[in-house]
């Protein structure tokens, strides 16, 4: 087959640069010649005017001797000339020509072709590439603020889907609401409350629509608040004296985690130290919708420490205390252990 043509880009750039420099040199030479011709014409016109004025004065009368002319033969003395001398003209023109020459020296011709790089440009490009490859530089940290929740550990954060509001919770039992649009320079929360009394906040999450908030604390009952912090529902507490957790209406031990369903805005999920993962409906606070019980390889009960939905909401996953990750079909109770 035919071989592909190869091009030496560096040679092409070098040839282009030489051509540009040569063209600029020719332009400068042409400008200098034009200036020299113009100066010579002006000098000749001034000499002609001087000779004409001298002849007119001598022709007016032989008795009149011009004070500013000293004729010796055909030469005129420079000391008696009252007009501008040739040296003064040349000295006056000299600085201007020098400045023009300086400007011409700074003129380097047309710009270099794209892609031509000097050693300094290579160094600059290397620095910019290093900055671009640095992941820290990609963080948009040019504008930042510090929100002071309290004096104790902040254990939960929840961001509104629109990004306009933030909710924080901590070990001081407080839940604070922050509104970025209505915040002033003091950077204070517009509401602070303790929805779970003396229980530490474990998890906070806005629903997919952003109208309600799931609050998971250290007690056995999860709560749902509206955007302004007013209670919407509270999960029921289960019976501690029933051995089979499937027959209880709610959790009987401390909660560990919770999250909203990604598609169904009324459904959410919680897991607890009682060894169960339960789904709930906001409109029914009397009983859970379904319950899942993680089991170890030996069939013993294990405690789920965190739980979540799949992206489409069809699967439920829980990370357990024995290091396993167990997944259930939302409509079935059979689990798969990883």
From TrEMBL:
Question: Which regions are flagged for Low complexity bias?
Answer: 50-65
Task: Please provide an example of a Pfam family that matches this protein in its UniProt record.
Answer: WD40
Q: Kindly state one GO CC term assigned in the UniProt record.
A: site of double-strand break
Task: List the SUPFAM superfamilies hit by this protein, alphabetically.
Answer: Nucleoporin domain
What are the boundaries of the region Disordered?
29-147
User: Which Gene3D superfamilies does this UniProt record tie to the protein?
Assistant: YVTN repeat-like/Quinoprotein amine dehydrogenase
What is the protein's species of origin?
Answer: Pterocles gutturalis (yellow-throated sandgrouse)
| The keyword Membrane appears for this protein | no
Composition bias type Basic and acidic residues, residue spans: 29-44, 134-146
Question: WD repeats at which positions?
Answer: 147-179, 248-290, 309-329
Record field: compositional bias (Acidic residues): 98-107, 119-133
What is this protein identified as? WD repeat-containing protein 70
Q: Which domain of life is it from?
A: Eukaryota
Here the segments flagged for biased composition (Polar residues) are 84-93
Family, according to the entry, reads as follows: Belongs to the WD repeat GAD-1 family.
The UniProt keywords, alphabetically, are: Repeat, WD repeat
InterPro entries attached to this UniProt entry:
WD40/YVTN_repeat-like_dom_sf, WD40_PAC1, WD40_rpt, WD_repeat_GAD-1
């Amino acid at each position: 087959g035919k071989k592909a043509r190869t091009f030496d880009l560096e040679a092409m750039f070098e040839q282009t640069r030489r051509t540009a420099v040569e063209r600029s040199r020719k332009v400068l030479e042409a400008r200098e010649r034009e200036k020299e011709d113009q100066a010579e014409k002006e000098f000749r016109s001034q000499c002609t005017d001087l000779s004409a004025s001298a002849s007119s004065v001598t022709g007016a009368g032989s008795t009149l001797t011009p004070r500013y002319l000293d004729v010796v033969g055909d030469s005129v003395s420079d000391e008696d000339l009252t007009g501008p001398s040739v040296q003064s003209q040349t000295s006056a023109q000299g600085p201007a020509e020098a400045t023009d020459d300086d400007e011409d020296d700074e003129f380097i011709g047309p710009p270099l072709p794209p892609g031509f790089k000097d050693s300094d440009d290579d160094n600059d490009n290397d620095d910019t590439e290093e900055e671009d490859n640095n992941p820290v530089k990609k963080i948009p940290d040019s504008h930042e603020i510090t929100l002071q929740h309290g004096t104790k550990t902040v254990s939960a954060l929840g961001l509104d889907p629109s990004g306009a509001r933030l909710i924080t919770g901590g070990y001081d039992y407080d839940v604070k609401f922050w509104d970025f649009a209505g915040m002033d320079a003091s950077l204070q929360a517009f509401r602070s409350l303790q929805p779970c009394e003396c229980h530490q906040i474990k998890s906070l999450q806005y629903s997919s629509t952003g109208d309600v908030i799931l609050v998971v604390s250290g007690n056995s009952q999860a709560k749902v608040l509206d955007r302004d912090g007013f209670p919407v529902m509270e999960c029921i507490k289960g019976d501690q004296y029933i051995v089979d957790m499937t027959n209880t209406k709610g959790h009987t031990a401390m909660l560990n985690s919770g999250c909203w369903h990604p598609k169904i805005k009324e459904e959410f999920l919680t897991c607890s130290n009682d060894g169960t993962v339960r789904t709930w409906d906001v409109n029914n606070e009397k009983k859970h919708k379904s319950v899942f019980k993680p089991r170890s390889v030996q069939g013993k009960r294990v405690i789920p420490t965190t739980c979540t939905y799949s992206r489409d909401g069809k699967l439920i996953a829980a990370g357990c205390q024995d290091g396993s990750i167990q997944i259930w079909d939302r409509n079935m109770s059979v689990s798969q252990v990883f």
